Amino acid sequence: MSPPYVAIVGPGASATDSDRDHARRAGVWLARHGAIVLSGGLGGVMGATAEGVRDGGGVCVGLLPGSSRAEAHPAHTIAIPTGLGELRNGLLVRAADAVLAISTSWGTMSEIALAVRTEVPVVMLGGWTMPASGVHVTDSLDDALDQVLAYARDRANST
Hints:
CATH topology: Rossmann fold
Number of domains: 1
Order of helices and strands: EHEHEEHEHEEH
Largest sheet: 7 strands, parallel
C-alpha cells in the first residue's frame, strides 16, 4: 500500500497566527497518520506545515519556486528548487493525492483552481467563498484532516 501524498497550501507572508497554528497541527496529524506532506517550501503556512510534520516524525517535501535550496524553510525534510516561480503550484498539485487549503491568498487560489481542474480532491479550512463546487469547505480542522486523508488514501491506492 502506497502512502498518501497530501499537499498543504495557504498564505506565505500574509499567514495569520491562526493559519500557522492550523498548519502546524495538520502537519503533526498527517505525519502521525503516515502521509507524505508536500508544501510550497517557503514560510507562513508552508513553514508551519513543515514544522508540524517534523514534530510528528514525518516527511515534508518543499517544492520551491526559486533555484536555491537555501530559500526553503529549514523544517522541510526535502527541498526541491524548481526554478519555476508560481508555476511550481502546478507541480505541487499534480504530485498530491489530495490538497488541504488553510485559508486563502491569490497563490493558494491558483493551487485550488488547478486541483479542481485536474480532479485532485480539495478540502478548504476557512478562507474565501468558493464560486463553484468541487471543494469541500469546512471550519473544523478535525473535519478537514479526516476528509483530506480519506481522499488522499483513496487516490493513492487507486493509481
